[in-house]
Each structure stands twice: as C-alpha cells, then as structure tokens.
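Consider a protein example.
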Amino acid sequence: MLQRFAFILVLALGLSITGLATASVVLTDASSGMPLNAYIELLEDTQGDLSIDELSSPELQSRFQPANGRASVGQSQNPWWIKLTLQRDLRAPARWALEVGSVTQLDLQLYLPDGQGGWQLRQSGERVPFTENRDHPYRRMVFDLPPLGDQPTTFYLRAFDPAGNSFPLRIWQIEDLTQLATRENLALGAIYGVVFALLLYNLFILISLRDRAYFWYVLTTAFALLFIMSMTGHGAQYLWPNHAVPAWLDRITLPSLWGLFASRFTQTLLQTRIYVRWAHHLLNMACVIYLIAIALTLFDQRYLAAWAIALLSLTSIPAALGSAVIRWRQGFFPAQLYLYGYGLVLGSVAILLLRTTGVLQPAEWNAYVFPLAVAAESILFSFALAYRIQILKQERAVALQQADREKTARLAQLQASADELQAAVTARTAELAATNEQLRERERELQHAAFHDPLTELPNRRYLVERCESALAHAERHKESVALLLIDLDHFKPINDRFGHAAGDLMLQVIAKRLREHVRAGDAVARLGGDEFAALICGSDAESQAREIAERLLAELSEPVHYGAERLRVTISIGVALYPRHAKNFTELYKAADMALYRVKELGRSGSRVHGDDGELSEQACLELDVLKVPSGLV
C-alpha cells in the first residue's frame, strides 16, 4: 500500500513539472481539422538563445504559460516556443499531420521526437523554399507527425517573425486536408481570376489611352494580386517554389509597393494636386514612408518596417478618405466608387493589422477578408476609371464644340485671304517638291559618279574593291570560290598616238560594252583606269567560269572596232587569281592576278593565265616558304 501511494505521488509530481496533464490533446476519429491553440503552451525567449535541449529543465518548463486559444503574439522581436502534447484514442488513426496556418511566418522550427531521446528538426518559413519546408503541397505549412500512441507525445515549435508572430495550429488527416485544399483553391482561384482579368482589361486600356491613372491602377492591381497570393500562401507555392521568399516580395515589401502605387493612383484619379492639396502632401509623405519600409526590410530591419507600415494609418488613410469625400462633394462621381472600394480594403487592412499586432486572433472568417476586399476594390476602381474616362470624353466633346464655334467665327474673317494663302502654299509646295527632286537626282548622280567610270559607264575601282570584299565574305561563309580577272589592252597607246584620243575613247567604250555582254549578269565588270579592266567571277565553279570567260574575251575583244574608215584592233592580256587558293583578301588577290597578267605580257601578250599554272607561288606562300628556309638557329 505504501509503495502504491509513493508511485502515485511521484507520477503526480512528474506530471505537474512537465505540464503534460494540462496540455495533452487526445485525438479521436473526429479530430481531423480541430484547432489546437486552446491546448498549447507558450514561452517567450527573451534572450533569443534557448535551445531545444534546454527546454527539458524544470525551470523552463515552469515558465510555459497556457495560450488560452491565442494564435498570435503580434509584433515581437523575440522568438516564441510553442509546446504541444498529443496522444490518440486507440480507435483513432496513428498517422496525423500538423498544420501551421501562418503562411507568412519568417522562421519556423518544428522539433519532433526521434524515438531515441533526441529531436528531429524541421525548418520552415519564408527563409526556406516551399518544396523543402513542408511534407505536403499545401499553401500552408504541413508536417507529418510520428505515429501517435495512447501515451502523450510532446512536440515543440519555435516561431520567429518581428513583423507579426502568428501560429494557428490544426491537426489533420491528409484526406480531409486534401479536400479542404481543393475547395480553397477553387474559391481563391476565382478571386485571382477576377483580379487578373481586371488587370489585363485595364492594361489593354492603358496601352490604348496611355493614361497615367490607368498606369498606376495596373501597378496597384498587379501588386495587390501578388500580395494576396503571398498572404494566402499560393505565392510561395506557385511563383517561387524552389527558392526562399525574396526580400523584395516578402510580407513587408509587397504591401509597401501596393500601398505606394495605390497612393499614386489616388493622387491621379482624384486629382489631389489641384483639388485637395493637403491630402496630396500627406499621400506624398506616405509614399516616402513606404519606400523607407522597403529599405528597412532590405537591411533586415523587419520589426521597424512593420511598425512603419502600421503607422501609415495616421497619414495615408485620412488623406485618401478625406480627398475622396471632398471630391465626391464636389460632384466627381468616381470619388464615390473609390470611397466604396477603399473602404472595403481599409476594413480588411484594419483586420490584418489587428491580426499582425495580436489584438485579433487568426480565424477562418478573417482569413479571406483581404482577398475578397481586394477583388471588390479592383472592380470598383475599374468602374471609377471607366467613369473618369467618360467624364474626360464629355469634357473633350464640350471643348471641341467650343473650338468649332470659335473656328467658324474665325473662318468668316479668314475666308477672303484663304484662296490667296492656298495658292501661295501650293506654289511653294510645288517649288519645294521640284527642289527636292533636283536634290535627289543630284544625289543619285553623285552616287553613280562615285562608283562608275564616266567614259565607259562601268563600275570603277572603288566599286570593285567593295564588291570584292563582300564577295569574299560570302564565299568564306558558303565555302565557295572567287576569281579576279585583270584585263589589259595590248598596243592601245599607238591608237591614241596615231588616231587621237577620240579613237581611244571609242575603243575603250566598245571594249567595255563587249565585256558586259560576255560576263554573266551576276558577276561584276569594272574599269580600273587607263586601258585596264577587271572582272569578278563568283560561285562554286568560279575557276572554270573564269577560264571559259577568259578564252571568250580573248576572241571577242580582239575583234576590230570601226572608226570612220579605219579598223582599229587591239589584243588583250588576262591575269587570273583565285580565292582561296591564291589569296584571302582583295589586296593579295589583286597582286596575284597582276603577277599572272605580268607573266602573260612577258610571254608575248595576247593571252590569259591563271596564277600558279607554271608552279609559281602566291606572295603569301612565298613568305611562308621563306620562313621555313630560315635556319632554326636564327629564329
């Protein structure tokens, strides 16, 4: 009997130290979806340095306080430990999943017993990618718990978020959670669809009208959509699942950008610069504070940034409401629609602030207030914009009517001089048109003169150089060849000396004409100066075509030219060089063709020759050969 009493005493003492008796939750078949915050205990880590191993001490266990249903402690710079003890009825399933309903928690650590007296850490929150911080693809954080027995099992969570520390907890069977997720996705998807459709619709109007109010509306709606997706958890799930939530899209930056663009939209829609100047200045101040909040977030000052946004209720809210009321009383109907939309969002934001500061605890009824309010606001703001455009159209129509009346009055006075003015304009227009045509013709003449020989009308050396460089580049890309023919008239000087320059000019013109006739249309012919001509042959068969054309030119160009009663006759010498066999650029190709031409003249003229037919090397090959001949000791 004494032993039994001692056992009961020790058991009672142990339960009073650990707190299991007061915090244990017995799960049954009907427990799926049950909130757990009424059964948890909280401990504020004022130093921020407590570890999971230290929590087992009786001193720290005694500091845990019942949460009494609280799911948020508001904006706190300290981490909070949550203690949860679970067990199951023998008829209940052993496998359960724990949901932490704070989708914007900065840092969450879940400690699960590993069965060997230690702990298994699960890291979650915005600092961890979505795909790594939960066991199921749900918009909120969900973790599989170890199998539960009929004996109590204690779990610990460490939550830290200076911008608003909340931790609504629920216990689930995965099948029930999957059904809930399906219903939620349908409802939230409808909200996203409405906001996105309005965004696209007004984006198209912005592109058409290029109106500043539509510009700020599009930005406001875009960031409102991102904001509500972030608040519901779908942002991390679908937009950046493989990365931690970026600082420029977290729960501080997104609402700041949304508020910044909403303030600019308010200023533009309600024309506060003109009609409500005090509100305009307050909204400017709000924009500055939003930018400061963003900067604080980027410098990891999340707590200060959250308070900066909360304090904006002293500036932006009175300014927006006041300017809307004043403009409404001035007869500006879009201000009334704006007031309705802003009032809805203002109410939802007030609820968010109450949740953030811990005054209002997270619950199902207030989880969807903000997305619904943003959707309604987007609709009402879109109507306000459309009505504003209608007002602008009416004002424009009135202005056009007034302008038409003034124009009619002026026309009566200007009619007498209109005909004279029209005649002067017509004459001047014709004069300018003629001058422009002369300038264009002169430009064409200069362009033609820059690239053509005035005597033969053939392209000149400058044209040949540019055409050859282009042909070489094309040949290099397409692995083709190019042939350059240098054509020199033999015994041309005696014709000039005996019959005069008129005979020489005629000879050159006839030679040029024959060259054009016997060279393919796609190839180029040019006069290089004096009695020297050139032909550029392109294509995969450039060598064979060059040889064929050279033979044909030898026969055709040697035909006599009639000059009065005289029959003038010359022979021609042709030197041919090939790309890429003999050279890789125009300068070297020209030198190779010139060497071949010089060789023809040495051999008696009146013939054609391809460079290298007698085994001579190109200048580049000669240089390479000379390098090889240099003794190795001199290199």
